[in-house]
Amino acid sequence: MTFPGPRQLPFPPGSGWGEGRLLQDVKGEILEEWKRRVRSAANGLGFVRTEPALARFAPNLVDRIIFAGEEVSGEVLIPSARFIEGCTISEAVRELSLLRSTVQRVAARAGIKLSSHMVELVHHEIDQAIAEITAEIHRVASMQRALREEDEDRMRLALEAAKVGTWEFRPQTGELTWDARCKELWGLPQHLEASYEAFVCGIHPEDRARVEAIVQHTLDPRNGGTYHIEYRAIGLDGGEEKWVACQGKVFFDPHGRAERFIGTVLDVTERRREADFRERFVGMLGHDLRQPLSVVSFASETLSKQGLQRDSGELVRRIGRSADRMDRMIRDLLDFARGRQGGGIPIARKPLDLHELMQHLVDEIATVNPRRKIQLAVDGDGRGCWDPDRITQVFQNLLGNAVTYGKSDEPIFVVMVEEGAHLDVSITNYGPPIPESDRGMIFSPYRRGGRGRAAERAPRGLGLGLYIAQEIVRAHGGSLEVTSDRDTGTTFTVLLPRGHAG
């Protein structure tokens, strides 16, 4: 930046030359009182500011007044963007007007009598600052507008290349705006306006209730306002069924009302078709493998009863153990296929005492792992209606993970608490914490634990255990969540409604 030379004062040098030096001793008082007055004025207008917008510029401006008339280089004349970031012109004028009166008020209180020349100089410097800041705000705004337009052009080109549609919904007015890609996906002619009713009509009938429920959930400020969903769309012309992935964000006003809901939509039909094919293949493979595996299991069991020699008997037992492990993996594959294709894992509810089941599972694991300490605490009634086999599968998985990943010299805590119509079950171990980057994906299929050396002890499965456990809990109308840090350990919490036999 090129700085100007000495400033031209509004009056010729003479009496009052250097008079501003008298204000040097009260500079701090001027700035503090000015800040208080700015905050008070902002609060009166409904704004909340901890600092004035021009807090970083004001000290330099007061120096301009103090040293007026002296041979200064003028390095503080032009405000840079860093001094006025986020400041509007009206805000700048309001704050500088308050500084004008504050200088005179503090000077009078300190017994400093300002000459007419000095008062004129204060007005001149403040007016000059208003002009400079107004020009700078205009310059910064123009530059930001140009950059924003350039960014918008780049974003538009990127969205067009990726065939991503964009939309905006105004919940308070019901106004819905679609770009050309959204209209194309829904089969809406480009010259027609979109509407929420058109959006709903273009959703596959079997998915409409689910989509509308998630939209309403997202519009509730208590739920964070983040929207992510995949569903089937048939369009307004009843054309070919397609899968779309939508993401969005809700912006709320100060009263918590949904003001703007913006987002994107992407056609993911091909990806879903490929995923469906893979999952059907996995299901068929698992089903077809069960028959030859049952033959292997039957043969190993038969041979083990025939009094074989020691070495031969051990080989047969190894075959049996391997066959059991393969059977568990195949069952996981079939459960995974059912969960992904059939709308969830089927369950058969029966009366069950969950406290008794958990005690049995804890005793069973303690027998296999005699050096591990498992503490079970129960409170309230543990009776309800659940699928015994499926619930056993859930807690076997969670307890097995606690043994695998928990420190061998630290106990595992199992706490079961009655919460009205629900049972709250938490299982805590004190092993290495789950990395924060993994926590969001830990219930995703084909994910294995990765907690240091503990992971080396983990059985090498398919990484479906936690995914299937969560699907089973969801099938019971419950939830499965995890928290993990070094101080409080890793805790899996299962919330299960008691349900009823059916």
UniProtKB/TrEMBL annotation:
Keywords: ATP-binding, Kinase, Membrane, Nucleotide-binding, Phosphoprotein, Transferase. GO terms for molecular function: ATP binding. It comes from Pendulispora brunnea. It is an enzyme of class 2 (transferase). Signal peptide: none annotated. It holds the Pfam family HisKA. This is histidine kinase. Gene3D superfamilies: 1.10.287.130, 2.10.70.100, Histidine kinase-like ATPase, C-terminal domain (3.30.565.10), PAS domain (3.30.450.20). The keyword DNA-binding does not apply. It catalyses: ATP + protein L-histidine = ADP + protein N-phospho-L-histidine. Its EC number is 2.7.13.3. It comes from the Bacteria. InterPro entries: BphY/WalK/GraS-like, HATPase_C_sf, HATPase_dom, His_kinase_dom, HisK_dim/P_dom, HisK_dim/P_sf, PAC, PAS. Residues 284-500 form the Histidine kinase domain. Residues 227-280 form the PAC domain.
